[in-house]
User: What shape does this take?
Amino acid sequence: MSNTLKVALVGYGFVGKVFHAPLISAVDGLELYRVVSSNPTAVRADYPQVSISATLDDALADPHVDVVVIATPNVRHAPQAHAALSAGKHVVVDKPFTITVAEADSLIEHAAQAGRLLSVFHNRRYDADFTTLRALIDEGALGEVTQFESHFDRFRPDVRDRWRERAGAGSGLWYDLGPHLIDQALQLFGAPIGITADIAVQRDGGESDDYFHVTLRYERRRVILHASTLMAANDLRFSVHGTRGSFIKQGQDSQEDALKAGRTPGDATWGEDAHPGTLTTPDGERFTTRVVRGVTGNYCRYYEALRDAILGLAANPVTADEARDVMRLIALGLQSSSERREALATVQASAFHM
Assistant: This one.
């Protein structure tokens, strides 16, 4: 294997086209070598140099492929990842990792047996606002965090005809945005004691959940994760309060919009936060508020770290074990919402085949 890793991207829908293809192409040492798609015209229009396969089996039979990136509907993640591992490829799975915890366990065991790297694309670890918040917490600017509120709200009143919004395993907002918010919370605070979830369908004609409000309970801290498709005033991203101050952040990370607009990752102003947050701290009997410019975000850091991990130069940027922890809370959230009570996070979520 040369130092340039050849990547096969499986799926050229929204996630493959907007996120994975441009990020892979922007990272030195990675080559977008092959795309598996039922729409070769769209692939050729964007990447005329790549090989195109109509089937996953065709791509897996190519001995030049080092890494397989799976960006297909959620129900295909586990079987396609198993197939890629069986073919001796390193594997990246878009989030959510799997549909069930049992599927996650099976893939982790398979990767260990195959001796191949298995990673999950939790790109929101590389958002500008999250990276800035993490630095504030690490440096003690907020003291002990007692309440953490994380929002990912939109205003999309019309139900669209796409698999994410149809009824079925792995569809809905909890599987779509829940993994992002859960992973960030676990990165900051570790595993909670329990989870209380309210997951609902609010839009007319909705077939899958389009709302969730979730509380992760820690010993003293409360972590609130919220997403809705019916919030016109949807600017709030973080509201974080601690024993030394509060951090309020409006607006989403800019990278998704930049990728949708066709901008090249890493260009001038890439990942800059147009709406930096504010830090409020006590100053005697008064309060002082200052703008926190923070750091820039860069999703390419995930693929840079992945490249280095495969080459034996760094650690896996998102391990399959970490992604399985996310899926455990996804499963427990479904249990909590269904039973209308708290689900203890110490329960083995692998029992839930949801």
